[in-house]
Amino acid sequence: MPVAIEDYAMIGDMRTAALVGRDGSIDWFCAPRFDSGACFSALLGEPGNGRWKIAPRRTGQVRRHYRGSSLVLETRFESEDGVVAIVDFMPVDPDQSSIVRLVIGREGSVAMESELVIRFDYGVSVPWVTRVDPQTLTAVAGPSMLVLRTPVAMRGQDMHTVGRFTVKKGQTIPFVLSYAPSHLLPPAPGDVAAQLKRTEAFWREWAWRCTVSGKWSGHVRRSLVTLKGLSFRPTGGIVAAPTTSLPESLGGVRNWDYRYCWLRDAAFTLLALLNAGYCEEADDWQNWLLRAVAGSPGQVQIMYGVAGERDLAERELDWLAGYAGSRPVRVGNAASRQTQLDIYGEIADVMEHAHRGGLAAPPRRGALRVALLAHLEKIWRLPDYGIWEIRGEPRHFVHSKVMAWVAFDRASRAPATAKRLRDRWKKIAAEIHADICTQGVDAARGCFVQAYGSTQMDASLLMLPIVGFLPPGDKRIKATVRQIEKQLLASGLLLRYETASGIDGLPPGEGLFLPCSFWLVDNYLLMGRRREAVRLFERLLKCRNDVGLLAEEYDPRARRLLGNFPQAFSHVALVNSALGLLHAARPKERPRLQQRHQKSAVPADGAIE
Fold first, then answer.
1. 467 Cβ partners below 8 Å, 6+ apart?
2. How confident is the model over 167-224, as pLDDT tens digits?
3. What 3-state DSSP class applies to 172?
4. Distances (CA, A) of 29 to 15, 16, 41, 120, 244
5. Which of 139, 300, 460, 590 has its CA 20 to 30 A from that of 560?
6. Which one, of 448, 318, 453, lies nearest residue 395 by Cα?
7. Dihedral sign from CA coordinates of 250, 255, 257, 263
8. CA–CA distance, 41 with 29 (Å, rounded to integer)
9. Measuring CA to CA, which residue among 394, 75, 13, 346 is closest to residue 199?
10. Are 593 and 586 in contact (CB under 8 A)?
11. Nearest-angstrom CA–CA distance, 306 and 238
12. pLDDT in tens, 436-457
């Protein structure tokens, strides 16, 4: 079996990231960006597809932690020979991406081995390795170059680069691997001690800006640091995860590329950043989103590249065996071409929260809103592929319609907008609201359902009270939560929907979806069920790995994380649920912004005014 997903930790420099296993192996690294081709792809194949392992030659007990509130990882190996620590980090450097690995002797004398296998282009391209000087090697293939610097004698062996050495107490032996375009000279060596100091200081100072205090504040801070590590510093974009094709079901086909920026995450992320005191990051995210969607309203996508790229064509890498045999391995994401109505609501929510949070309005924000709503007015009655990006036939998903309502509802409250437009948008919002309450409710059970004409439940329906479509005390909302608990709750956590229905065009089966479970926490809190909210939140915290990271899903039987990792959506949901719980416990201490719950402009019985 491969290394378990939860046995990885992330290091990053806000341009790209790497996953480091408990065994000392870096099995995933894309350069120079999150969405670039990987040069270490063992995560999705085998060691021969690229990895960099540094570990004792004799195994023993392993413990690890992040240093303070940073992305500097320290892994401690204890054996009969002694104790050695490996400190892994990526310097916060504006010019290049490097992985620094410091092997530090703590006790005794430990025999170590480094094995470096570089395979560009997702594990397929073998580089030409050249020794520049006794401490420097370069590996070049096509446009890419990696430069290794270390005092350890490294040699070629079966297309690998290996070195054996011994570290004694008090010694620190550095390894530095830097990326550069192959047509340039190798980057100059840096002072690793100074780089470590600057990197720790950066993360310490960034985490210090967090304004959250009290219970769970440490968990919130770790999730925010993870989110910062998933941001692309040059543009402000935030990727959903640094990985592709980690499976939602081991051995299955639900394997997708998440190294892109989803509009769906936007409003959740903006709230988390603003309420935690990170206005600059929230402003960067707002500006990235509005740049990305600029253009023809009919061409708005659900996701973009980190710089706003639109061409995310999907292909399969048939030379990779997949994580735990989960194939196909995909890069790119065909869902980027789907129609998903909910993104218009997300954009509208971002605009409102940005305004209420005091962020400056980007140029043409108002004009963009008018153009997007004019387009949405034409298409909201059409079926779409929904929040879960199904690969089956489009449906009239209730969540999608609700978010279309959000788009018009929020815009109808927009300041500095002509009254005639606000009146029109309010009328359309009321029309959508009535349509949903008529066609999206199961009359027999009195609850909302996944899609018009369906009897299936969907955890996305938990968003209805969160976005203020109806108050949490409405009998239909209460019935919907009861049915979700009945149909989708398993081992204390939620499934997204009933995959056995075949609605998504894929084989059934996946893990429990962590963001949806956090939404249930939020619903419990809105309904005044605080004890249940706290209990579920504490259950979700136990799903994190030993360094506080979450994937997208969880398998309660195997007690394993599933899906791409670490997952921004899960960490944002954790932050927002924690902030809601903390505010409920200290109601006099108001957050910068309320959570997404809004008072509906339509009466609770769903009638049109």
1. 345, 349, 402, 403, 406, 596, 597, 598
2. 999 999 999 999 999 999 998 898 999 999 999 999 999 999 999 999 999 999 999 9
3. strand
4. 11, 8, 7, 10, 11
5. 460
6. 453
7. negative
8. 7
9. 13
10. no
11. 7
12. 999 999 999 999 999 999 999 9
Domains of the chain as residue ranges with CATH: 5-188+200-204 (2.70.98.40), 209-585 (1.50.10.10)
- Angle between helix axes 266-275 and 217-229 (nearest 10 degrees) is 130
Q: Token digits for 380? A: 């909201």
Residues 6 or more apart whose CB falls under 8 angstroms from that of 520 comprise 459, 462, 481, 484, 485, 494, 536
Angle between helices 398-411 and 419-439 (to 10 degrees): 160
Q: Is 445 helix (H, G, I), strand (E, B) or coil?
A: coil
In this prediction the pTM is 0.95
Q: What 3-state class would DSSP assign to 73?
A: strand
3-state secondary structure of 19: strand
Cis peptide preceding 32, ω within 30 of 0: yes
H/E element, 79: strand 73-79
Total residue count of the chain as it appears in this document: 609
